[in-house]
Predict the structure.
Amino acid sequence: MIYDVITVIHTLFDIENKIEKIEKENIEMKAEIAKLKDMLQETLKIHPKTFQKINNTINTLQLGKEDLTKMLTTDEKLSILNRQVMGINDLVKLVHTSGKYKNCMNVYITNLQNTIGYMYDEKHNKFIEVNKNELLNDLVDSRMHDIEKFYDKLQSNFEPEKAKRIKNFIDRMKNEQDCLKDLKKEEIKLIIYNNREVINRILTKIHN
């Protein structure tokens, strides 16, 4: 009986030591994560508060609240539609990375390996961390909604066969069984990521 009690005490002591070790490692891990985030910000040369202050200068719009039917010219809309399956790629480049529509530069991807993306949040009046896949899903859905509205208004500008191909693209993007949407999400992820320095430079220039 005494032996059992001693065994239990030793076991509890071991458990306490393990808990203390885990807590210590957790603190060290959090410190390392914070350090890595600081390094990332320094590498990007953009201070965390910069994103927050940018909206005061250019009135950044939250993703999904951009009215592209009013913002884009008719020629731009026709060009997007004419490109059919590549139209959404062109639209994302034009609106979110080119700098022509600075108040629509509201998404940012800094790393392809993790699950984090950045999106301007109207409620918090700053860019916030979001799930990258959800961000891309919302981005594709928002821009496809615009493309569909462009098509509804301008389809008469195209020959019947071209209009049919454009409509087919729109329908495929709505079809959950079609892999086209996932393919477009991957392409657009690369567009945002590959233009991160351009986005950073434009936003930093505006802020300064």
